[in-house]
Structures are given as structure tokens and as C-alpha cells.
């Protein structure tokens, strides 16, 4: 779904979103109240310019419109793999973006992420996954690392990873698998405007992803390990 079609379905009461070099920014109305909108389109890789533009838009919202909800529309192939970006410190720019979203949450801005197309690697980790809750459309492509790249890094044969991915969502891409792991709160179908209004109303800054992953059977040890660390106890082998 292209971003203009998405915006018309999310914001039937109207929006003022503009696109510039695959960066989306602006405002919209949800249930008669204003929200800030930032995001990306065209599967754009996140380089230093877009990371900084998103961070600037979030800080402007925090400074000028206290507690206004922020909607992050995600469509990215991940961080831009260029020598220039690496030399400029793309990791620091993306960390800065993540910190700005965290600042907004700490200042009581409900932050909602929506993956409407692609969400890959660091471009997703420092945007949608930093929100109070992240949602996805059914056809969204979500993964942090593809199996071929995972095979090269882990030295585990790709065929073995493919087999593991059939039963273990940690190895498998897709919105349904991220739903099982708790990374995605829900997959939206039907009335997107109603889903968005409910998400804003129910936004909670408490991180429940490991809890959801345990309840949904996608991440069975994250929550027990976290609780063991907090309590100082031990967790048995899975």
C-alpha cells in the first residue's frame, strides 16, 4: 500500500502530510484531535539525513505541542550501507533517533508505530520498535536479518536456519512471526482509522513485549530471564 492510500484510510478526517526525498512529516486528525506524523516511504534506507530529519521532527513536536500523539509510518530497507554514512557515524545518528523517541514517550507523548510495507534491521529497531506499541498491516515485510545474512554471521548453514524458521519465529520473517514474539502488538485489517484511534487511547509506555512473546509462545525465555535477573534467582534450561 502506498503512503497516500494509507494516509487516506488512517486519517479520514484529513491530514497535512508531505513527502520530501522519501521522508514523511506533517499532522493529521484522529477523532477530532491533532496528531504528529513522521515516517518513510519507497523502502528508503535510513541514512544520516533521514535519521536526523526524523529526530528533528520528533523534538519539534515535544517542544511545541506537549503530549501530542506521534504516529511513525514505517517503510524502510534498513540502515543505508554506504562508506560515507559509516564514516559519519550512522550508528550514532540512529541511536540519537531512538533517544528522541524515548524522550517523547517519557514526556507523555503516545507513540504508535505502523509497519505498512517493509521494516528491516536498524531502520526498524530505532523507529517502530521504539514506539509504545508497534502494529503492522497483513502484507508487511518485517525482519531484522535475512536468513542468508544470518547464515554468514552465525556460520550455521542456511538450510538449517530455514528448517528452524518453520517452527521458531525468532528465525523467521513476517508480521505473523513478529506478532508471536511480541514485537508487533497486533496486525490491522479493516477499519484502519478505528484501529489507530484505539491504539492511541490505549497507548502505554510500559514495555510488554517479552510478556506478550511468552504468552503467545514466540519467545519463551525472555520474560523468565528478565524476571530472574530482577529477583536474583536462576532460570532452568529450556
Description:
It is a single chain. The chain has a domain at 3-137 and 188-205: Alpha-Beta Complex (2-enoyl-CoA Hydratase, Chain A, domain 1). It contains 11 helices and 8 strands. It has helices spanning 3-10, 48-64, 83-88, 90-106, 121-125, 147-154, 158-167, 175-181, 192-201, 209-215, 222-231, and strands at 15-20, 23-30, 33-40, 70-76, 111-120, 133-136, 141-143, 186-187. Helix 2 (48-64) runs parallel beside helix 4 (90-106). The longest helix is centred in the first third of the chain and has 17 residues, at 48-64.
Helix proportion: 40-55%
Q: Could you name the CATH topology of the domain at 3-137 and 188-205? A: 2-enoyl-CoA Hydratase, Chain A, domain 1
Tell me the number of helical segments per DSSP (H or I, 4 or more residues long): 11
Total DSSP E strands:
8
